[in-house]
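S2.1 Query sequence (Dihydroorotate dehydrogenase (quinone))
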Amino acid sequence: MDLYSALGPLLRHLEPERAHALTLRALRWGLAPAHAPTTDPILRQHIWGIDFSNPIGLAAGFDKNAEAVDGLFQQGFGFVEVGTVTPRPQPGNARPRVFRLPEDDAVINRLGFNSAGVAVVRDRLAALHSRGVAGPVGVNVGKNRDRVDAPTEYAWAAGALAPYADYVTINVSSPNTPGLRDLQGADKLGHLIARVREAMDAACPEGAPPLLLKVAPDLEMAAMADIASVVFAQHVDGLIVGNTTTSRPKALRGGYRTERGGLSGRPLFELSTHVLKTMYALTEGQVPIVGVGGIASGADAYAKIRAGASLVQLYTALIYHGPALVPSIASDLAARLRADGFESIAAAVGADA
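Output structure tokens follow.
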């Protein structure tokens, strides 16, 4: 029995944010048991000029303020995304704002971009950058709730953090900041991306990191087509599909299923995979996609890859299954690739699309 198998049930008896804070501290202080990194060559990829030892990443939302990056890489992740980071510190929405649905392997949250702000995260990333880190670190940026000039907000955050990031993600898909998803419309999104790109280029004269866009899983076909057109027009380097959903599947059983906020975990898998497959088709397989939503096994990760994802991310499954899930997924994914005759992940991307 690993340590999480013993302590996990105790953590899940605590209020969710309290349990999360304790987990981050354990990771930061090196108290969490480490898992050997996955080094199977079939899982390696070179995307956006970045080497990924394996395709399994930690989604934004877990380490919002870059507190425990070293400890997270010791859990076997191939890459880690911190954030969402807002320009100024903000507390987010009122508590309670995180609700477990264990019967569904799901969570509902309405955190609302609680963030220590750019200055704090920039200093932490600069320290990581100076001493070296075990793998690629992405930075997810958003806007402060009380600010109406979204392009300026995103450009400020991205420009400040880009020098210390392996990639930057624009998050316009959280359902918990009023009006944020409206920024996914073609005109607003194109202007916002142009401003962010300009700020990143100015901050990184020797070459800015790749720019990714994180989109919602609740998009209609017309909205997805608009986003694809903007991705091509603005030369966006990659997509993350998707964020949490405001929908509520009828099969949900958890007592908190009617709470407001974004739903993540197992019930999101089919919806997010459908949007992933659609975005892969709309972008003609030319734009690398990170698949997120409901991944809890090697089979789930493999399905995302065959639907069009080059990389995958998880978060909610860690709450219920612990960090040992990461090397388990990597090992199973490698076995599935070989069983189907693929020599690399790249060969399997979009096989079902």
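The two ends are 39 Å apart (CA to CA). DSSP finds twelve helices and 13 strands in the chain.
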